[in-house]
């Protein structure tokens, strides 16, 4: 029999202030946090389902929580998580992640945003929420997340999120929206390297890189310091070919207008993607800049790692957790529920004994208390 969990959630979230009037509190905040996390791991997708899980698992939960006053109602979960300070929860999350995974040396950290598509509320004129997350691609963990302030875009949230993280010796990858000199400098200042996407809406930078690569290609890359790499992937009836060219050298960089503004810039990258699906062929060329050395094979691997945030996090949230269908909207509820989902993703990803994907693991956690304990044991590192 697996020993019942003695969760460390209370230790890492002890500074989260309970928004309720103290003498009216019936259910301790740690009870709501623990029941909610267990329920979300085990398949609950909203506060009503969280409360139902609590009632069905009351005897088991009572082995490590003081449930003298029973399980909170779904209204209590709704109201409390709508009021909890997201910044305090985020600080607890960061502390918890750092305790789970002390060091991320050499890790590729992908940063990207995701919309919570049903988080808008027409009646209260609350706009759709966008969350920006940082994903450790090898460790398979969410390192942190922040809500994009209303009326702004991801550029405003990315620097703040990066500032919360220990990025020393990591490689940070961001889509074109994060291709800003200030963000690149912040990454360098935090002891990390950057690889940033460049797109056409970035004016001179894109135009200059595109023109330079065309010139270099016309000359067979003979007059520039370059490396190249190629990968071919087959599966599900399609073939994907990726070719990477990387160019470095002071003379090459000087071709870019204002290149001096980019901190420690070393290498320009072009990746050509060619996809064969039945009788259709699609092609795309993308450009990137980085302070990493001119090693095309490594740079192609780093860039491919970035897509893990889409495949291993965003896709999982949409399919296994039905995040896009969530209609939790009250107060900070949507943002705080997103953080709990990220905690659940981290714990389920770290549990390696069960076969199947995240959805199958959630079902197993709902059916088997011992397995749920095994998943929760990740929170006690």
List keywords for this structure.
381 residues; alpha+beta; 2 domains; nine-stranded mixed sheet; 15 helices; elongated; disordered N terminus
How would you describe this structure to a colleague?
The protein has 381 residues and is an alpha+beta fold. It has 2 domains: 147 residues, no CATH class; 213 residues, no CATH class. The protein has 15 helices and 9 strands. Strands 3-2-1-4-5-9-8-7-6 form a 9-stranded mixed β-sheet, with helices on both faces. The N terminus is likely disordered.
Major sheet: 9 strands, mixed
Spatial gap, N to C terminus: 20 Å
Strand content: 15-25%
Please give the count of helices: 15
Quick take:
This protein is of the alpha+beta class.
């Amino acid at each position: 029999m697996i020993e019942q969990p003695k969760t460390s959630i209370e230790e890492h979230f002890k500074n989260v202030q309970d928004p309720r009037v103290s003498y009216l509190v019936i259910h301790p905040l740690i009870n709501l946090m623990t029941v909610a996390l267990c329920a979300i791991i085990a398949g609950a997708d909203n506060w009503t389902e969280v409360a139902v899980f609590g009632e069905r698992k009351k005897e088991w939960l009572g082995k490590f929580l003081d449930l003298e006053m029973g399980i909170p109602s779904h209204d209590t979960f709704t109201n409390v998580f709508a009021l909890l300070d997201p910044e305090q929860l985020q600080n607890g999350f960061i502390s918890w992640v750092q305790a789970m995974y002390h060091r991320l040396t050499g890790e590729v950290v992908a940063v990207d945003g995701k919309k919570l598509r049903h988080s808008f509320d027409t009646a209260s004129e609350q706009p759709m929420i966008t969350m920006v997350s940082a994903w450790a691609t090898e460790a398979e963990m969410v390192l942190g997340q922040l809500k994009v302030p209303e009326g702004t875009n991801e550029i405003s949230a990315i620097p703040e999120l990066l500032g919360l993280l220990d990025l020393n010796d990591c490689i940070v990858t961001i889509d074109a929206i994060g291709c800003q000199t200030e963000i690149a400098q912040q990454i360098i200042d935090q002891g990390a390297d950057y690889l940033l996407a460049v797109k056409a809406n970035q004016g001179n930078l894109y135009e200059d890189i595109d023109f330079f690569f065309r010139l270099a290609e016309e000359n067979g890359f003979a007059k520039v310091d370059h490396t190249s790499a190629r990968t071919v992937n087959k599966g599900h009836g399609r073939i994907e070919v990726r070719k990477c060219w990387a160019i470095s050298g002071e003379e090459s960089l000087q071709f870019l207008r204002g290149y001096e503004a980019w901190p420690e810039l070393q290498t320009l990258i072009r990746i050509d993607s060619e996809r064969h699906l039945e009788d259709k062929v699609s092609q795309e060329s993308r450009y990137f800049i980085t302070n990493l050395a001119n090693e095309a094979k490594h740079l192609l691997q780093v860039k491919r790692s970035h897509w893990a945030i889409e495949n291993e996090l965003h896709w999982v949230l949409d399919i296994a957790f039905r995040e896009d269908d969530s209609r939790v909207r009250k107060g900070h509820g949507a943002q705080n529920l997103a953080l709990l989902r990220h905690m659940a993703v981290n714990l389920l990803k770290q549990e390696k004994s069960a076969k199947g994907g995240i959805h199958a693991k959630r079902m197993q956690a709902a059916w088997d208390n011992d397995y749920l304990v095994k998943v929760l044991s990740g929170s006690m590192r």
